[in-house]
Specification:
heterotrimer, A mainly alpha (439), B alpha+beta (368), C alpha/beta (183), B: alpha+beta, C: 183 residues, alpha/beta, Beta Polymerase, domain 2, two-stranded parallel sheet
Chain lengths: 439, 368, 183
């Protein structure tokens, strides 16, 4: 009965009701077109139209980020809770969805403490400066075919600059806290920044070489045009970028800057109340913005083969963002932390050479593509095969030849059926005393 | 021109996520490297040895719970054995088997905790701790079933155990020992033992040579990791351990990784012992009749058990009265700490945390 | 070959071995333990550790017992290779208990000797860092002594010697004046 009733509703005419009007949110350009038209009608000058529409877009993005920061607290805690064989927050509201609200209320009520000798301006500015880059990155990220706030020709460069700024604010926080743990965190961040910027940039070079543009929309369009996600063409760059950026994000296995079990909280040890809350939220925001970058560069952004004709592009995009974000949560929930020297060695000895080899190979491929004049239909499958093989060979070769020799001893203990004590020379205790004894 | 630098003193503890209680390590640090370590204990000192002199022998049993609160059964057992040795009390066979079963279950619980906390010190974000807690909870459920308490069990009595096991205990134990725990240990093997990051973090960290291990009176997994096959259960069998077949897992290198794998293997051996003990569990009384205010003859006794942390010894002196004249505990956690400086100096601050985690101290026992 | 289960060496046996190298180091011996002369104890301890038959390389534990007229230091030694255990006692004065530290011989002793110093007030000569371990520095007296906060008619409190008198300390206070500074 109900099915028959449904058939009576003319679907086509329903679609006609929304197509092309401003409330057709499948495509944001309808909305902007409406705004332009009205502003023109009301006689605003040309430049103010751009300002107003830019402001509206910015507000929209900030609203989205705010929502994401609230939701992701819940998402991360639930997902990690599942991984830790427990439930996660489930009491407040449906499925515990109101838990972030309760967290925020609690954090706002807490007193914001500040060390007496901390330089107030830097100390206060640090959490704000930490939050801004994560939001600002979204300006150049395309949400759909016609939906990008600022279509910069140097979008990728802008993103790289912004993501380094976040690290600087971490140093501000750690340095101004006047706390030894915080200072350790800050110093570790600087060491990490110096090391990991190189593989990040060198890894993304491969993407830029393929796409021939630094505009993010252009990179998405390249993937659409060639009918392949960039992660297929550039699996090595994807892995390098993923590891390196998770180090810059301070997430396990590279969270040495906040290293809870070693230096308590690292750079945010001294922060409390909403200042800490801002750090906490900004960490999630940065994770989401990095996920957005990965989704755009490597996973096609708003484009997904034929799917983007059925589903609005921004929905696909958000879906991909959360897919990548789940990867980050997953690594955080499972892996232990590297020591700092191991982490830096990983950047210099593994990621950087791999990224450079990758750039060389990609340059050769792009050159071959342009010089030969053959179609993409021939070259893209070849590139996918070659780069996939290269990734496998490089990882296998590095593991084979450059892995640390920590397996000198067997990983399993020996078994003795009975007590067995080798006769040992007596230690004179002089060695022990030579170190000055213990105090 | 060389820059003039001087080492920084950093307090690790008493309130620190990885000091496993209120333990304080004053580390002098040059960059990331540790130059000197000073340890400060005593924040949890409850003067149990003095208090015990004013309570009867039976009233002292709960103190042993509160000492190593992660291995209460082993503490109970060690103390009861010492008083039984002092007063020459025969313990019924069933009670001895029950003591073995509960002692080994407690070892599983304590080692679960130690393994999880150790991986957490390596930097994993709570996941291994929660997994290990899950398996520890299963053991604690059995404790609750038997004696009503989960942590401070107060189960052993002088001359036996407090209660006989309930009817539903043995089926639950069999399910745990034959099904749930072996599966969990397989997971540990896959996730922890083979994990390369853990190997990188724990191999060659906190190394103890066998000479130093003996000279510094180390015991338990610390001693065994250094390559010395020594276990009180084999060397000086108490209860019915001489009838049980099990192996002593022994490490090669004496580092933190060896200690962790030894703990995991010991849990498996514990299961083996429990299976044998359940198979041979005789009937009969679970307790001999011992006066509540027992007055052992004047004299002294030192008895020791292999607690999860190491050799737990009780030295009891009686003057013929209802209370011990002197009650001393050889606390393995405290004595294992005496090589902390040797193990940590020269390593990075992150390694020091891993080393401390691999010693598996319990501050309740360090301070008493 | 190690014994299949730990053998308790009788005091006489241990005394015999020590007398071979140091005839006058042993005060007395019985079934359970051997009592050493406090003055010669350090050499005797060295013999215990290095003697092939005694082989006391493993210091199982050390503690102290307040015997009202004297304080007994109690040492338990084990040989892991031969699997035996024996007990050694060293008596010392009740008012001014001083014995030689065995930390230079067994590094495992240093925390336990600090513990004995803290709770019983025995001084160890040659200990690298003899400070209080559990209690704070200005704690009056040594709680494991039988005369600590003793009832009337008993002995005098052991506050007069230990710890070193901190100026301004009356013996009545149980909390440091300035917490954290040790004053």
């Amino acid at each position: 009965m109900t099915l028959n009733a449904l058939r009576l509703i003319p679907m086509r005419s329903l679609l006609d009701l929304i197509t092309g009007y401003w409330w057709d949110l499948r495509d944001f350009s309808n909305l902007t077109r409406m705004i332009y038209k009205h502003l023109e009608d009301w006689g605003f000058p040309d430049w103010s139209i751009y300002v107003i529409s830019g402001l509206i877009g910015t507000l929209g993005i900030i609203a989205f980020i705010g929502g994401v920061a609230v939701i992701n607290i819940w998402v991360e805690r639930r997902v990690v809770g599942r991984m830790q064989s427990r439930l996660g927050p489930n009491r407040l509201g449906p499925f515990g969805l109101l838990q972030p609200v309760a967290d925020a209320i609690k954090l706002m009520q807490k007193e914001v403490l500040q060390p007496a000798s901390a330089p107030g301006l830097i100390y206060t500015l640090a959490p704000i400066a930490f939050t801004v880059p994560g939001i600002a990155v979204f300006a150049v990220v395309p949400w759909g075919r016609h939906a990008v706030l600022a279509s910069l020709d140097v979008g990728l460069l802008y993103i790289l600059g912004m993501s380094s700024l976040a690290v600087l604010s971490v140093f501000m926080a750690g340095y101004s806290s006047n706390n030894k743990y915080s200072l350790f965190g800050a110093m570790r961040v600087i060491a990490m920044l110096v090391s990991y910027e190189i593989p990040i940039v060198a890894g993304l070079l491969g993407v830029v070489l393929f796409a021939g543009t630094m505009d993010l929309q252009g990179i998405v369009l390249f993937q659409e045009e060639n009918w392949a996600f960039m992660v297929m063409l550039q699996p090595l760059a994807f892995l390098i970028y993923f590891f390196a950026i998770s180090a810059e994000l301070n997430r396990t296995p590279a969270d040495i800057a906040e290293a809870e079990s070693e230096i308590v909280g690292g750079y945010h040890t001294e922060y409390s109340g909403m200042k800490f809350g801002l750090f906490y939220a900004a960490e999630l925001i940065n994770a989401v913005s990095v996920s957005a970058i990965i989704a755009t560069l490597f996973l096609g952004g708003w484009w997904a083969y034929k799917l983007d004709e059925l589903v609005p592009g921004w929905m696909i995009f958000i879906g991909k963002v959360y897919g990548v974000y789940f990867l980050f949560v997953w690594t955080r929930g499972t892996l232990p932390r590297f020591r700092i020297d191991q982490l830096l060695a990983f950047a210099w000895k593994w990621l950087t050479p791999m990224a450079i080899i990758n750039v060389v190979v990609v340059a050769a491929e792009v050159l071959a593509w342009e010089e030969s004049g053959w179609s993409a239909g021939f070259w893209i499958p070849v590139f996918i095969a070659v780069n996939g093989a290269l990734t496998g060979a490089l990882i296998f070769g590095f593991v084979k030849f450059f892995a640390p020799k920590f397996q000198r001893f067997p990983t399993r203990p020996r078994f003795y059926p009975d007590i067995d004590v080798p006769s040992l020379p007596a230690v004179t205790g002089a060695e022990f005393m030579a170190k000055g004894g213990q105090a | 021109m060389p820059i003039k630098v001087e080492p920084v003193e950093v307090n690790i503890g008493p309130q620190h996520p990885s000091t496993h209680g209120v333990f304080r390590m004053v580390a002098k640090i040059d960059g990331e490297r540790i130059v000197d370590v000073k340890m400060v204990v005593g924040y949890l000192h409850r003067s149990m040895e003095k208090l015990a002199e004013e309570r009867t022998f039976t009233q002292n049993i709960p103190f042993t719970d509160r000492m190593d609160y992660l291995a209460a059964m082993s503490g109970n057992l060690g103390y009861c054995l010492s008083v039984e040795k002092l007063a020459n009390i025969e313990v019924p066979e069933r009670a001895q088997y029950l003591r073995v079963i509960f002692g080994e279950l407690q070892r599983v619980a304590s080692h679960c905790m130690a393994t999880g906390a150790f991986i957490n010190d390596c930097g994993a974000w709570q996941t291994p701790v929660m997994w290990c807690f899950r398996d520890r909870e299963r053991v604690l459920d059995l404790f609750e079933m038997t004696c009503g308490a989960r942590l401070t069990t107060n189960y052993m009595r002088i001359g036996g155990v407090a209660f006989d096991i309930p009817d539903e205990f043995l089926p639950a134990l069999e399910k745990l020992v034959n099904d749930e725990l072996p599966k969990a240990f397989e997971e540990y093997e896959e996730l922890i033992v083979g994990n390369e990051i853990i190997m990188m973090r724990a191999r060659d960290v906190g190394v103890v040579t066998p000479e130093l291990a003996i000279n510094a009176s180390l015991s338990g997994p610390m001693l065994r990791s250094a390559g010395i096959a020594w276990d009180i259960r084999k060397a000086d069998p108490y209860c019915v351990y001489d009838r049980m077949k099990f192996d002593i897992p022994v490490g090669y290198n004496g580092d933190a990784y060896d200690r962790m794998t030894i703990r995991i293997e010991e849990m498996k051996q514990s299961l083996r012992i429990i299976r044998q003990a359940v198979g041979d569990l005789p009937g009969g009384a679970h307790k001999t009749d011992v006066p509540l205010a027992i007055r052992p003859p004047a004299g002294e006794a030192y008895s020791r058990v292999e607690s999860p942390k190491g050799e737990l010894g009780f030295y009891v002196v009686s003057d013929g009265g209802p209370a011990p004249y002197r009650w001393h505990v050889r606390a393995p956690s405290l004595i294992n700490l005496s090589v902390l400086r040797e193990m940590t100096v020269g390593q990075t601050i992150a390694d020091a945390i891993v080393t401390l985690g691999s010693i598996d101290i319990n501050v309740g026992e360090v301070d008493r | 070959m190690p014994h299949p289960r730990t053998m308790l060496l009788s005091g006489e046996e241990v005394a015999d071995r020590i007398r071979r190298s140091l005839p006058e180091a042993v005060q007395s011996a019985n079934d359970a333990y051997v009592v050493l002369e406090p003055e010669r104890m350090y050499e005797a301890m060295r013999v215990i550790r290095d003697d092939e038959q005694l082989d006391g390389k493993f210091l199982t534990q050390l503690c102290s017992v307040d015997m009202v007229t004297r304080i007994d230091m109690v040492y338990h030694f084990a040989s892991l290779a031969q699997n035996h255990l024996f007990e050694v006692k060293v008596p010392c004065d009740h008012e001014h208990p001083v014995v030689a530290s065995i930390t230079p011989l067994w590094s495992g002793a240093w925390l336990q000797e600090r513990e004995v110093y803290d709770l019983m007030g025995v001084h160890f000569e040659g200990h690298p860092s003899l400070t209080r371990i559990f209690l704070w520095d200005s704690f009056p007296g040594h709680p494991l002594r039988k005369d600590f906060m003793s009832l009337p008619g008993g002995q005098k409190p052991g506050l007069s010697q230990f710890p070193k008198q901190v100026s301004g300390q009356t013996g009545q206070e149980f909390r440091p004046k300035n917490p954290g500074t040790g004053q």
